[in-house]
Write a structure and sequence with these properties.
The protein has helices spanning 23-31, 36-39, 55-65, 68-77, 79-82, and strands at 2-9, 14-20, 44-52. With 97 residues, it is of the alpha+beta class. A hairpin with a 4-residue loop joins strand 1 and strand 2. It is globular. The termini are close together.
Length: 97
């Protein structure tokens, strides 16, 4: 499955948008500081993900979410999450297989 995901750092107040074919492995890598960008994030938390059957569709979505319009859409869609009402710790994530 092709997954586009969004991490949020409440301390840094920044998004990280990524793509992976193995979400469990990739989240563990983020949790252990693997990766140039997320290694500098103080408290990355998974706040959103979407799964696609097509790699092309997933990469198109990832690229959109990295644009100014895409980030504005994320802020609107995830307004309550970003306000602190809902957080998902990486270690407690229970994803479908």
């Amino acid at each position: 499955m092709h997954t586009v995901y969004v991490l949020w750092s409440s301390l840094d107040r920044k998004f990280y948008v990524g793509y992976t074919e193995n979400i469990r492995r990739r989240l563990q890598e983020h949790q252990h500081g693997v990766g140039h960008t997320t290694a500098r994030m103080k408290d990355p938390r998974l706040i959103f993900y979407e799964c696609y059957a097509s790699k092309t569709d997933a990469l198109r979505r990832e690229n959109y979410l990295k644009t100014t319009k895409g980030r504005m859409a994320l802020r609107l869609m995830l307004k309550n999450t970003l306000a602190g009402s809902v957080t998902v710790a990486l270690q407690t994530l229970d994803l479908p297989v």
